[in-house]
Amino acid sequence: MILVSSCLAGMKVRYNGTDSLDVHIQKLVEEKKVVTICPELLGGFMTPRPPAEIVGGTGEDVLNGTAKVVESSGNDVSEMYIKGAYEALNIAKEINATLIILKENSPSCGSAAIYNGSFENRKIAGNGVTSALLKKEGFKVISEEQLSEIFLHGDM
Q: A Pfam family in this protein (predicted)?
C-alpha cells in the first residue's frame, strides 16, 4: 500500500486551505492503491493555519531538538510537527507502506527541499519533520516531483 499526503489527493488541508492535486496521485486514489494522511492535521493543527518553516536546520534537526518549526508569527509549533510525524509513522507501519509520497517543500513532508526559515520563499536541501522520521525508520519517501519520473518509466 502507498501512503500519500492528503493535499496531493485533492483534499484542501494545506496551511492556506488549498490542495495540491496531482494527476498521478488522483489515478492511484481511483485505483484504491493509497491511504492518505496529513501529518500536520495528525499533529493537531486546523485548516487554515499560519504558514510555518523550519528555523535552524532540517527535519532531522527538529527531531533531535536542535532546530524548531516556527509559524510566521514566531510561535514555536515543533511539538505538533513531531506528534504528527509519529502519528504518520504509526499509520505507515499499520498499512505496511511500500512507498510514501509526500508534498515537497513542506516543513512536514518535504523530502528533498524545504523552506529555509526566513519566510522569504527561499528553499534549502533537506527533509521535513515527517519525511526525516519516516526515512530514519527505513521507509522509501519521495515527493510528487519524483512521482512523475516513476510514471514515465512505467515503474508504477
A: 2-thiour_desulf
107-153: per-residue pLDDT in tens?
999 999 999 999 999 999 999 999 999 999 999 999 999 886 666 56
For the chain, give the percent of residues with pLDDT over 70. Answer: 94
**DSSP one-letter string for 15-78:** TTS-----HHHHHHHHTT-EEEE-HHHHTT--SS---EEEESS-HHHHHTTSSEEEETTS-B-H
Residues 53-58, mean pLDDT to the nearest whole number: 98
> Strand pairing of 68-71 and 123-125?
unpaired
d(CA 86, CA 137): 11
Separation between Cα atoms, residue 3 and residue 136, nearest integer Å? 16
Q: Which long-range contacts (CB under 8 A, 24 or more apart) does 19-24 make?
A: 20/103, 20/144, 22/144, 22/147, 24/144, 24/147, 24/148, 24/151, 24/156
Q: Is 65 exposed, middle or buried (0-12, 13-18, 19+ CB in 10 A)?
A: exposed
Distance from C-alpha of 135 to C-alpha of 24, rounded to nearest angstrom: 22
**Does pTM surpass 0.90?**
yes
> Which pLDDT does position 152 carry in this prediction?
58
